[in-house]
Amino acid sequence: MNAFTFNTSASIQFGVGALARIGALATDRLGERVLVVTDPGMLSTGIVDRALGFLREAGVQAAVFSDVVADPPAAMILKAVDAAVEMGATGIFGLGGGSSLDTAKLVALLAPGRETLTDVFGVGKAKGPRLPLVLAPTTSGTGSEVTPISIVTTGENEKMGVVSPVILPDVALLDPELTLGLPPHVTAATGVDAMVHAIEAYASANANNNPVSRILATQALTLLGGALERAVHHGSDIEARSATLLGSMLAGQAFANSPVAAVHALAYPLGGRFHIPHGLSNALILAHVLRFNCKTAPGAYVEMAPFAFPELARLEGQARAEAFSDALQELSRTCGLPQRLRDVKVPEDVLPTLARDAMKQTRLLPNNPRPLSEADALEIYRRAW
Fold first, then answer.
1. Structural domain range at position 234
2. β-strands 158-163, 149-154: how paired?
3. Residue pair 167/105 in contact by the 8 Å Cβ criterion
4. CB 352 within 8 A of CB 272
5. What predicted TM-score, i.e. pTM, was given to this entire model?
6. Is 312 in the same domain as 232?
7. Lower CB count within 10 Å: N or C terminus of the chain?
8. Which of 160, 179, 198 lies at the terminal end of a domain, its last residue?
9. Is residue 170 part of a domain?
10. What's the CA gap between 177 and 70, in Å, rounded?
11. Segment 261-289 mean pLDDT
12. Is 171 helix (H, G, I), strand (E, B) or coil?
């Protein structure tokens, strides 16, 4: 058995109504001045006000930074850091989707003033120390609450990552009630995103692919495959919401340690150039990358397929791997997601540019179970178009 490293959040607290614990968590861990990092849409849900109420009941001074946007740009992150410094924050509470949680991680890291954003881009560059950090997801997709990764948009459309166990939070606070208001299309896109995390973690060619990640990935696929469609079409079903939130977290733990590959590498240019939400970008590319991989490396897909779709156990070998790709595309369709790049207004003449952009994802592409060239990437985009 190969040596491996497995890192995750120090504490995971899951349960309906768990948001009410934030006051006690602030008292114990975050200190007396807490900056809540979130996005404008969250303000209208009432969730931020509830969190502020719990913090103030605990005697904690709280301020809100609510300017987070999708695909967080560097300038916005630095603005959030300034807000934390200005209030003298003793701790950071990230509340929202993956962009809010990714931003909160970097605010906690950079607010002490010992490192700059430029210093920490890359793998293992962030050293800390950081401010105490609690993250509470309101979507079931990114798994950011248990990953040592924060993605930043630099320049016009390029994405860079900060990857370090230093930015894992002290507490991942998971409350399924916070996901009840998610619209169906967001539920669908984030849920498929979580499935991509599990699939790519299980099949990753990374040297740190490990038994813990693979077990977590299969459990995530069991939960998500069994509950996602119901969560999309019956959004008030708390059991379906609980299963998708927990599945997202487990998938996050898996890929945090056994990194993702070509699906993400080809999805990032779609988000960077066209601002397509990350989960939808992954959904548009997923089946086409899997079909490419299955031609020479079907084994991992053969193994994991029945966890997501038990009916595929009746098939064997290459037929099961190919059916897995088809079943994932059908799930995306029944959940109401767009099926083609043309459906989200990606012009055909930009596909070569996307392929060139994808090849810049040198952190991810080596993890793909089948080597992928720029010509391969272009063919995958054409099949997805």
1. 184-384
2. antiparallel
3. yes
4. no
5. 0.94
6. yes
7. N
8. 179
9. yes
10. 22
11. 94
12. strand
Contact 84, 73 (CB under 8 A): no
Work out whether strand 171-174 and strand 33-37 pair parallel, antiparallel, or are unpaired. unpaired
Q: CA quadruple 242, 134, 152, 210: dihedral positive or negative?
A: negative
Specify the 3-state DSSP secondary structure of 104.
Answer: helix
The residues, any chain, with a CB within 8 Å of residue 250's CB and separated by 6 or more, are 143, 198, 216, 217, 219, 220, 223
For residue 65, what is the DSSP state?
E
- Asked whether the predicted pLDDT for residue 366 surpasses 80, the reply is yes
What type of residue is 262? A
For residue 24, what is the domain's CATH number? 3.40.50.1970
What is the Cα 347 distance to its own chain's centre?
A: 26
- Which 8-state DSSP code applies to residue 61? E
* 86-120 per-position pLDDT tens digit: 999 999 999 999 999 999 999 999 999 999 999 99
Cβ atoms of 60 and 132 within 8 Å: the answer is no
Domain CATH number, residue 349: 1.20.1090.10
Angle at 255 between CA 251 and CA 258, to 5 degrees: 135
User: What's the token pair of residue 74?
Assistant: 């560097």
Q: What distance in Å separates the CA atoms of residue 283 and residue 333, rounded to the nearest whole number?
A: 10
| pLDDT tens by residue, 3-34 | 999 999 999 999 999 999 999 999 999 999 99
Judge if 243 and 125 occupy the same domain: no
Q: 299 Cβ partners below 8 Å, 6+ apart? A: none
